[in-house]
Amino acid sequence: LEKLQRDNRELEVRRVDQENKATTFEHRYLKAQREVTLAQETVDKLQTDLTIKMTQLKRFEEKAKTLHSRLESTEEELLHARQQAGNHSRQYLVVTETSTDEEAQEDGSGTDANLDRSVGSPSAEHMTKEALTTDPDDDGSSPVNGSTDQDDKTVKVSRAKTSKLSRYRISGENTVLEDRMRELMDEVEELQHELSRARDRESMNEEHIARLSSTFDQVFTATTHEALQIPSKLPCIPYPSLDNTDFDNEEDRGVISLIYNRGSRSDPDNYHPGNLPPILSKVMEAIVADLLME
């Protein structure tokens, strides 16, 4: 009877010890589960940020291409406007020179005509004779000469008006073209500034994506290294005899079985990540979470 009581006390002590160990492992399991959840959320957030940055980078690249095409089209339009302005300026100069030459020729022809009339005019006696021989009803005026002078004056006035109108029209077109050229120059400068800002944002996004990729690679490398180092860090706990141990319920027995039913974990040669129990997998994930928190 004393031997049975002593065995019973030993079994009770072992049972309490195993319960304490099971409770400790349960707390560690819950803590590891929380840390793994936090680590998973952090990794998901990093992946989401990386995806968003990649999308923004693509959008900025497309916007930069659009701005570049707009800049090229605006430069072509500006070049075309400059060519048109040059053509109109040359036309204006040609018209001005032509009108000046015509006025000079008209002035010269008028002077020559006056000289010819003065040289070829009859003398006073001849004019007196003509006056005597002409019809008394004639008033002495020449209808042909009067109509010719009137036509010359009309042509001169029309030419002057035409030259003035052409000058006004060309000057107005030049003003419009100059305004358009200024607008195009302002638009080109604005597009250049916007393109430079887009390139700056693109470079910043590339740097941020590079930092995210580097962080993700470091976390993955550290996780792999810690996973390989887990077997050497785990304590060697002897496998208890569950048949000779009393437990209050089947849940305690299941927890202990879950911890010890994988054999010795102190042998690195027999280690494989798939052979770890779920609680050890959670511990490994907890290490990843600690690295991320650091």
Automatic annotation (TrEMBL):
What are the Basic and acidic residues biased-composition ranges?
A: 71-80
Q: Per its UniProt record, what InterPro entries does this chain match? A: LIP-1_CC2
Q: Name one Pfam family in it.
A: LIP-1
Q: Domain of life, per the record? A: Eukaryota
Keywords of the record, alphabetical order, are: Coiled coil
Instruction: List residues traversing the bilayer.
Output: none
- The residues forming a coiled coil are 174-201
* Stretches the record annotates as Disordered: 71-159
Describe the location of the Liprin-alpha CC2 domain by residue ranges.
2-85, 174-229
Keyword flag Membrane: no
**Under what name is this protein listed?**
RH2 domain-containing protein
